[in-house]
């Protein structure tokens, strides 16, 4: 498994499958960033694989479908976006799917990610289902915040608590991902959770974004020539750049329309400096950037393309109604 600190938990789950089919729902608890969802999915895969293989490279049809994330008998519900609640409609839609016959012979697996995000209504609907799930349906949930799930639901489950691994193991994982500087600091910030520590490290790319944003603003203000900025940016992932530019523009448009900052991000703070540009022109430019995102694969000369868009950007700044 990709996360070595989960091996013993995986082995326990494997054993429980071999001993007998699990009857009560499984609740995998632990702080964010330990890989609980990967473990739940791996559990689902072992259940659906005809030989219950733990092998990452099992070539059976079920495992291949799981790897492609299209196994029809694995049904998952999770927050649509980070921090969003899971509404009762998601649970109803799940129950509708379960009312149909399974696609393959054997079990069906229902996974719930971050069960603390179920609304009360959704949790109640899910509880009813958990009480009588029907034949050959196996349920597993993951949970970052145990106190946030109704006790009635939690008490129905068999719990598996995942702890943070020893620091050495977390360090080795981060090193394998190319994190050397600050690794110990990131692990501490993440409460020992290695995947969260990696995210914290990657968030440092915010600094890099800030530098590009400053180039972008300076180019619009006529301080840096488009050719120079295009040269600096050449070789960078164009899609990522286009996404950042689009985000900055949308933040600017939002703050222009609402008159208030929509997010306390650094980008927004700097983007506030271009909020004098007329909204229509920003929308026009936004359309251009969306085109840029789609174009880059066909464009042989990325530097020329970047220069073209940077010239357009400088132009709308110069001709705006300031
Ligand atoms: Zn298999």
Question: In terms of topology, how is this protein built?
Answer:
Elements: H1 7-19, E1 26-29, H2 36-48, H3 61-67, E2 74-77, H4 88-99, E3 108-112, H5 120-131, E4 137-143, H6 151-154, E5 158-161, H7 167-176, H8 183-189, H9 194-203, H10 205-220, H11 226-233, H12 238-258, H13 266-271, H14 279-295, H15 302-318
Parallel strand pairs: 1-4, 1-5, 2-3, 3-4
Bound molecules: zinc ion (ZN).
Zinc ion is lined by residues 49, 51, 53, 58, 60, 62-63.
Give the names of the bound compounds: zinc ion
Calculate the mean pLDDT score and round it.
83
How many domains, in number, for the residues?
2
- SS summary, helix count: 15
The end-to-end span amounts to 57 Å
Strand order of the largest sheet: 2-3-4-1-5
Order of helices and strands: HEHHEHEHEHEHHHHHHHHH
Rough outline:
elongated
Main beta-sheet strand count, sense and barrel state: 5 strands, parallel
CATH secondary-structure class of the largest domain? Alpha Beta
CATH architecture of the largest domain: 3-Layer(aba) Sandwich
Share of β-strand residues: 5-15%
Task: Give the structural class.
Answer: alpha/beta
Instruction: Name the helicity range.
Output: 40-55%
For the secondary structure, the number of strands is 5
From the 3D structure, determine the CATH topology of the largest domain: Rossmann fold
């Amino acid at each position: 498994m990709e996360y070595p600190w989960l091996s013993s938990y995986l082995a326990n789950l494997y054993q429980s499958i071999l001993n007998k089919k699990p009857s009560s729902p499984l609740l995998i608890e632990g702080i964010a960033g330990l890989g609980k969802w990967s473990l739940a999915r791996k559990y689902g895969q072992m259940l659906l694989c005809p030989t219950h293989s733990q092998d990452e490279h099992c070539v059976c049809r079920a495992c291949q479908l799981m790897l492609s994330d299209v196994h029809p008998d694995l049904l998952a519900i999770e927050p649509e976006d980070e921090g969003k609640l899971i509404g009762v409609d998601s649970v109803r839609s799940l129950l509708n799917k379960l009312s149909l016959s399974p696609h393959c012979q054997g079990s069906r697996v229902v996974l719930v990610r971050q069960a603390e995000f179920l609304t009360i209504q959704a949790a109640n609907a899910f509880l009813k289902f958990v009480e009588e799930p029907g034949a050959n349906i196996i349920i597993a949930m993951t949970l970052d915040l145990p106190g946030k799930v109704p006790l009635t639901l939690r008490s129905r489950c068999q719990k598996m608590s995942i702890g943070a691994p020893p620091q050495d193991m977390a360090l080795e994982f981060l090193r394998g991902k190319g994190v050397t500087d600050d690794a110990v600091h990131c692990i501490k910030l993440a409460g020992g959770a290695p995947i969260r520590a990696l995210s914290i490290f990657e968030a440092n790319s915010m600094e890099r974004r800030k530098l590009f944003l400053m180039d972008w603003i300076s180019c619009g203000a006529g301080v840096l020539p488009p050719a120079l900025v295009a040269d600096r940016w050449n070789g960078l992932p164009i899609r990522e750049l286009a996404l950042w530019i689009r985000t900055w523009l949308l933040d600017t448009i939002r703050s222009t329309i609402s008159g208030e900052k929509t997010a306390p991000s650094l980008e927004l703070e700097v983007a506030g400096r271009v909020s004098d540009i007329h909204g229509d022109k920003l929308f026009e430019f936004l359309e251009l950037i969306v085109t840029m995102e789609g174009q880059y694969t066909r464009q042989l000369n990325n530097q020329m393309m970047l220069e073209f868009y940077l010239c357009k950007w400088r132009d709308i700044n110069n001709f705006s109604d300031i």
